[in-house]
Design a protein that fits this description.
The chain is of the alpha/beta class. The chain is built from 20 helices and 17 strands. It folds into 3 domains: 201 residues, Alpha/Beta hydrolase fold, catalytic domain (Rossmann fold, 3-Layer(aba) Sandwich), CATH 3.40.50.1820; 257 residues, Alpha/Beta hydrolase fold, catalytic domain (Rossmann fold); 55 residues, no CATH class. 31% of the residues lie in helices and 15% in strands. Strands 3-6-7-9-11-10-12-13-14-15-16-17 form a 12-stranded mixed sheet, sandwiched between helices. It starts with a helix and ends with a helix.
């Protein structure tokens, strides 16, 4: 028996539509409160490109994109120079200016990385159909969607992709497409690529001296460079440099938290939205510096030969870096993300907890935090687990919780009495400790915090998809028909999407997500844990999983 989600939270004690347009989605007419496209307009020409159709100035030269269904598209604009060779491990450099009008009609290269499985047998590639083309160190590129190039100051949303700090790109999922939210909300949408993994986060500060003091954070400095580009150029694309929101999911949510506590971001960002990812502290530099030393040893080089790490092909360097990381961990140093993620260097990223109210050099911006009910649902590809028992769930989580496993299962079952054992397992595996801790930490500062929990369940895979990691992205951006392998498409997900997009758009404009389509959304406090539960019926619940979550510690 499946859960009736409308009654789920009430019994547990916790408690119009948009069309999506894109290359892979069929164009059908619909009429909603946010988008209205008539059959007559759909019969008109949809794509325009020409010498004077979508041309915009940047500080480096003019770019020419195209006009698609009334939205200006610019793809692959360089915001930084090629990061290969002498620029590897160094803060991003400015791109070389150009004199002719530069085409900006295709997405830029992705940062070098290990790409997800894209085999025909992969359910992952079916669900997410990762968009990748070229991998290159010439990856500092961004994409812009805008309703008009008219000098109007529209809110700007900068999307930071997921994939931890080692994978992904600014358009890896179709749900990242900015066309619909740009059209519906009259906003400018930007997505970016930046350096990842060992090329973005190798800390050579202990072996390379002053020149490499920031090497461990150049992937985050790329994001700062992109925000500087937005600040200097976005008005030419119809955006307001004084109203910029950074938003990201998974690793992108962590990136949002890092940006929101970087001194270099102050004045460049004004709001933040972190989905299913968070950070409250940078990596331990004692460990990351040790990893830098191990990388040199693995390469057979001395500190005076670091330049040879810059000269070798990126494939060879990444292989060396990951081998060094593996060796270091085998020797007992437990380093987060394999050592290749943001580092608390005290220069670019503060040491200690993020969002320090006593440090006036940091941004202090309104933020939304959101996670999903079933981030890590265990049985999408394993239907036999649908009939697992509570005792078997307790056994499954024993590796993480030891002798407390039965107590934890009982606590979740008590708070969510309609949930079947497999759903209890998913809730425990996807618990909100991290996102709640991040929100509580952010409350040190004056700016407001809002909390959401996404519970809408995908009907795909015989209902086993549930409210999984990544599903909510397309809802925020009015892309539920475009990201049909997440939602199944149709009116039901569109209806919730319209509500969520309305809240997001109001947050972009004002720093407050309250809107007509949702119930009143109170500010989050650690005492009450006010949380907007996003589902077919949306409602605010105070600390909706709090009693169960207490047993996790």
């Amino acid at each position: 028996m499946t859960i009736n989600r409308r009654n789920f939270f009430g019994k547990a004690g916790v408690g119009i539509a948009a069309c999506s347009f894109g290359a892979v989605a069929p164009l059908t007419a619909c009429s909603t409160s946010s988008i209205s496209v008539s059959d007559e307009k759909l019969d008109d020409q949809q794509l325009f490109i020409g010498e004077n159709i979508a041309v915009a100035d940047t500080v480096y030269g003019k770019v020419k994109g195209f006009l698609l269904r009334g939205i200006y598209n610019f793809r692959g604009i360089p915001y930084g120079a090629d990061t290969s060779g002498k620029n590897r491990f160094l803060p991003p450099q400015k791109p070389e200016p150009w004199t002719n009008v530069r085409p900006a009609v295709f997405y830029g290269s992705s940062s070098p990385q290990d790409i997800y499985d894209r085999s025909p047998e992969s359910y992952g590639v079916f669900v997410d159909h990762w968009n990748y083309d070229v991998l290159s160190e010439d990856c500092l590129r961004l994409n812009v969607w805008s309703p008009a190039l008219d000098g109007k100051k529209r809110p700007v949303l900068v999307w930071l992709h997921g994939g931890g700090f080692s994978r992904g790109n600014g358009i890896e999922q179709d749900g990242y497409n900015g066309e619909n939210i740009s059209r519906s909300g009259d906003v400018v949408y930007v997505s970016i690529n930046h350096r990842l993994g060992p090329l973005g986060f190798t800390d050579l500060s202990s072996v390379g001296g002053e020149k490499f003091k920031s090497s461990g954070n150049v992937g985050m400095l790329d994001i700062i460079s992109a925000l500087e580009w937005v600040n200097a150029n976005i008005q030419n694309f119809g955006g307001d440099p004084g109203n910029v929101t950074v938003m990201g999911q998974s690793g992108g949510g962590s990136k949002v938290c890092n940006v929101a506590t970087m001194p270099a971001a102050k004045g460049l960002v004004h709001k933040g939205v972190a989905l299913s990812g968070e950070s409250v502290r940078g990596g331990n530099q004692e460990y990351t510096q040790k990893l830098g030393e191990y990388i040199l040893k693995e390469a057979g080089l001395s500190s005076s030969q670091i330049n040879k790490l810059q000269e070798m092909p990126w494939e060879k360097y990444m292989d060396i870096a990951y081998k060094a990381s593996s060796r270091l961990q085998k020797e007992g140093l437990n380093i987060r993300r394999g050592g290749f993620g943001p580092i608390a260097d005290g220069i670019n990223i503060p040491k200690g907890d993020y969002f320090n109210a006593e440090d006036s050099s940091l941004p202090d911006i309104p933020m939304i935090f959101c996670s999903t009910f079933h981030e890590w649902n265990p049985d999408r590809d394993n239907p036999e687990l649908e009939n697992i028992t509570m005792d078997e769930v307790a056994e499954k989580i024993k590796g993480s919780y030891g002798d407390k496993s039965k107590e934890i299962v009982s606590a979740y079952a008590k708070q969510f009495p309609e949930a079947r054992p497999i759903e209890i397992w998913a809730l425990i595996a996807s618990n909100r400790r991290g996102i709640v801790n991040a929100a509580d930490t952010k409350l040190q500062q004056k700016s407001p915090v809002y909390m959401a929990w996404f519970g809408w369940e995908s009907p795909l895979f015989d209902g086993r998809h549930r409210a999984f990691h990544c599903i909510d992205i397309s809802f925020w951006f009015l892309n539920t028909d475009l990201m049909i392998t997440h939602t199944g498409g149709g009116a039901r997900p569109r209806t919730l999407s319209a509500k969520m997009a309305d809240a997001l758009l109001n947050f972009l404009r004002t720093g407050d997500p309250n809107c007509e389509k949702l119930p009143e959304w109170p500010k989050y406090t650690s005492e009450s844990g006010e949380t907007m539960v996003l589902d077919d019926t949306c409602a605010v619940k105070n600390n909706p999983d709090g009693e169960a979550r207490k047993h996790l510690s």
